[in-house]
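Troubleshooting log. The previous structure file for this entry was overwritten by mistake, so regenerating from the original sequence record. Sequence copied from the archived sheet and checked twice against the printout by T.R.
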Amino acid sequence: MVRRLAALVVLFTSMCAVGVAQQGIALDPMPPSRAQVLALLTAMGIRQNVENSLKTAQNRVKASAHAAYKKSHPDADEASLKKLDAVFDTTPLFGFEEISETVVAVYQKNLSAADVQAGIDFYTSESGKRLVEKLPVIVHDANESSKERVQQKLEVYSAEITRKLEAFQQEMEQQKPGGNSAPKDQKSK
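Regenerated output below.
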């Protein structure tokens, strides 16, 4: 009797845990703090990547304006070009901090404090740091090494689609009302 009761308790406990997991009820429903999310974004390299992208965008706008000014003012001297550069240098583009609240809110909505802490723990570990460091190289190398294979696969796919489309068009022509239902080789007889 005690064994049956113990087995029943174990079974009930297991079923409750499975039920909670299936319902998506988090064992830690506490959302992460803003500081936690920012720490995760920093550890993952996202914050720095956004800052770098914004700086690159600003430099492109600056270079474009510089080129347009030189085109419309071919006789512009160095002093004028330096003043133009100063316009951009004294008007920096917004940074990560100005858009961080939107990003933080998304993380807070979708992850618990425990999830974010686990991410921080991983991305600040030696393995996580190595992954963040090597991921751009890995993605680049994977893209480069797969280009030829993807191209070959696309050519095979394209040929197969072309063949099937031609067969489909022939079938549709044969089904048109008005006598095109006989196969082509019987028409010539």
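Helices lie at 2-23, 34-43, 46-72, 78-89, 96-110, 113-123, 126-175, 184-187. Archived copy saved in two places this time.
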